[in-house]
Amino acid sequence: MSRHSAREKSIMFLYQIEVRDGNVHKIKEMFLSQYPIDNVDDREYFNFLVDGVIEHMKSIDDIIAKYLRGWTLDRQSLLDLAILRVAVLELLFDTRVPVEIAISEAVILANRYGDDNSRPFINAVLGSIEKNECTRVEPVVKLPDACSEHAGYLNDCEDS
After folding, report:
1. Measured distance CA(44)–CA(6) in Å, rounded
2. Is residue 95 included in any domain, yes or no?
3. Does some domain include residue 156?
C-alpha cells in the first residue's frame, strides 16, 4: 500500500460515516476488517487523515464553504466533500505533504471516483484555498518519521 492508497481508503471511510448511522469507532472497525491496512506506516497515515478530519471537521468545512461559489456544503456530493476534507487537512495541517501533491492527489481521486464535474470543481476549490488560506501550522497529529516521504518540507507554502 502507499500514501495514495491510504488517502483513497480514508475518503472511502469518510464517505461511509456520512451515509451510515452509528458509532464512528464501530464503523471504522468494520471498515478496516473489510479493507485491511497491513503496513504500519500506511495505517498510521490513514488514522492521521480520518482522525484529523473528524476532529477538525467544523473548521475544515468552514474553510471549504468560503470557496463554494453559489453553493453550500449540504448541496455537495458526499464523495467530493470527503475528497476536499482530506485535501484541506493535508494542505493546512500536514507540513510533510507538499501543497502540489495534496491538490494533485485530490484531483486524481476526483477523476477516478467523481462525476464529470468533480475534477475541475475540486481543483478550483483547492486552488483558491491554497492561494488564500495556505499558512501552514503544525500537524494536528504527529506522524512517525518513517511515514513521511517529504521530511524537512518547509512549514509555509511555496509561492504560486
Report:
1. 9
2. yes
3. no
CA distance linking residue 71 with residue 155, whole number of Å? 31
The total number of structural domains in the chain stands at: 1
Helices (H) then strands (E): counts for the chain = 7, 0
pTM for the model stands at 0.81
Sorting pLDDT into bands at 50, 70 and 90, what band is 73? confident
Task: Please name the residue that has the C-alpha cell 467523481.
Answer: 114
CA-wise closest residue to 88 among 119, 62, 121: 62
Question: Is 9 among the domain residues?
Answer: yes
> Residue 156 corresponds to which cell in the numbers above?
509555509
Range of the domain at 136: 3-141
Compute the half-sphere exposure of residue 132: CA atoms within 13 Å on the CB side of its CA. Answer: 10
The pLDDT assigned to 153 comes to 31
CATH number of the domain residue 91 falls in: 1.10.940.10
- Read off the pLDDT of residues 18-48 as tens digits, 9 standing for 90 and up: 998 889 999 999 999 999 999 999 999 999 9
